[in-house]
Structures are given as C-alpha cells and as structure tokens.
Amino acid sequence: MRPADPLHHVEHWVFDLDNTLYPARTNLFAQIDQRMGEYIRSHYDLPEDEAKALQKRLFREYGTTLRGLMNEHAVEPGPFLEYVHDIDISAIGPSPTLAAALADLPGRKIVFTNGSVRHAERVLTRLGVASQFDGIFDIVAAGYVPKPDPGPYRTMLDRYGLAPEATVMVEDMARNLLPAHRLGMTTVWVRTPSDWGQPQPGDGHIDIAVDDAAEWLAAVAAARRAV
Prior knowledge:
This protein has 227 residues and is of the alpha/beta class. 44% of the residues lie in helices and 11% in strands. Strand 4 (167-171), helix 8 and strand 5 form a beta-alpha-beta unit. Helix 1 packs across helix 2, helix 2 packs across helix 3 and helix 5 packs parallel to helix 9. The longest helix has 17 residues, at 28-44.
C-alpha cells in the first residue's frame, strides 16, 4: 500500500464481534438485550420496567450489565452468559466477502469481545470465517472486566504477541476505541445507528470510520494486492 495510507504499517487485526463483523441491521443484540432483561426480572422478581431500568443503569455504570450484577449482586457469570447468549443467530449468514478479505490479509486476526467464546464461535461459524481467526479474547479472558477498561487491552495484546503500533482495532462502539488509540493501535469505527455507539464531540481517537467492515476489509485487501 502507499506509504501515505494509514494502514501501510498494520500487520495484525483485532475485531469486536457483535455489530462489527456482521451488520447491526441484523439486530442480534436486541435478542441478547431482551434476555438480559428476562434474567434480571426472573432472578429478582421485578416488574419488567424495573428490571429494564436496573439493566440499563448497570450497563451505564459498569460497562456491561454482567459486571454490574457481579459487583452489586454477586451473580455467577457463567450461567448468566450462557442464558443471555442463547439466541437465534439465523439472521446472519455466510459472508464470502469477509472470508475472502480475511484470507487475503497477512498477520494474526483476533476477536476481542465483551461476550463469551461460545457466542463468538457460533457467530464466526455462521459467518463462515471461524478458521480465519487465531484467537478469541472474551469477557472471561478479561477477568470479567469489560471494554473500555484499559486493562484487558494490554492483556489481549500480550497474550497474542501483538505490537500495538502494528495492530488495527475495528469496533462499532466508539468509546471502546479510546484505550486502543492510547496504546498506539490504529482505530477503525464501524458506524452504528446506536446512540451509545457514537463518538463524542471533540473525540480524536478514531483514525478511520467505515459503514461496513467486510466491504472495507475487501477494499484494503484489494489495495494491498495492487501494490
């Protein structure tokens, strides 16, 4: 690629999973969100509106609902993760564009998710790209400390031997890219309709913004082939 290209130095690729490797319009996370509300409602015998309010407060204050439940209610994370990720993923299907682009690009490819390995494996298999990834760094590997806490980012880089200055991180939640930027990674934001996923005024930690990760990766791969 041309030296002026911000990715000419990139050797490794870190991806968020949900609403990043597949389009947000599939709305898988709505199912996860619903099941989190159901879990809280059934375990604490709360009306639906109170359960939803608790769920959202914990998410805002702790980064994930699970982290809040662990801190405030001593919830066991395993059963919670299994319950909330027991969803229908038929809305997504194989992505030949994504598979071909990942195969074309050198370096290690890692999924970095606030979800579980099992959920990531199901989604990657459904997309037809599971064999393209060298690892999944999930919420368990992070010690149940979610993005954007900076600690798991360094742990993830160290575990897979990734030099941050040679690594790109792709993510739909703009705030989750700030620690990556501070560590020296190139940051790519996948635009999302979610209010919570938007950059804040004055944010300067996003290097590239794209509408579709698969199409963007295909363009990157094509540009590298053309050199």
